[in-house]
Amino acid sequence: MSANSAEPTAGLTVSLVKGGRTKIRYPAGLLADDGTRVVVRAPWAGEGSRDFGFVRFEPGDVFTEYYWRDRWYAVKEVRTADGRVKGWYCDITRPAVRTGAELVVEDLDLDLWRSADGGDVRRLDEDEFAASGLAERDPEAAAAAVAALDELERLARAGGFDELLA
Fold first, then answer.
1. Which candidate, 95, 43, 89, 94, places its Cα nearest to that of 69?
2. Position with higher pLDDT, 10 vs 139
3. Model pLDDT for residues 16-44, shown as the tens digit of each residue
């Protein structure tokens, strides 16, 4: 499978849960599962395009997504239809849970973006995280989420995620 192919090798459904409800479910091709890290590839699962101002996700984009069972984040490499890297979108999540052909990931609102050239590293949705009430409901999870965002930002500013994703 080429780095930009969205053809699944084995079927897996990724379910992104937020606030106790499924936010989005989409099919993905399973590339690897070593018992700790799950790697999938999927086309942009949104309807139409979504312009964030700093990046635009659109039909044809392909996401190679890295999830961990022991880390509080997911890292998604985003490529255009012609294979050009746009950047990396990172979700702060509880550790992923795979049951059979479903991978469930609980989104904790915090995100990080790193552009392909590394010139744009930005923390996202800190206001949503604060408003979620997680710090009051589950202070340990909130602390783990903030620590995960700090770790990803440090890696992004130090040159990227190559070592993490190798």
1. 95
2. 139
3. 999 889 999 999 999 999 999 999 999 99
CA 94 to chain centre: 12
Cβ atoms 146, 110 nearer than 8 A: yes
Dist. CA 145–CA 94, nearest whole Å: 8
Its pTM stands at 0.92
Beta bridge partners of 14: 26, 103
77 Cβ contact partners less than 8 Å away, ≥ 6 residues apart: 63, 64, 65, 66, 85, 88, 165
Which sign, positive or negative, has the C-alpha torsion 8, 22, 93, 44? positive
Region 119-145 average pLDDT? 96
- Are residues 83 and 4 in contact, defined by beta-carbon separation less than 8 angstroms? yes
Q: Which residues, other chains included, contact 140 with Cβ-Cβ below 8 Å and sequence gap of 6+?
A: none
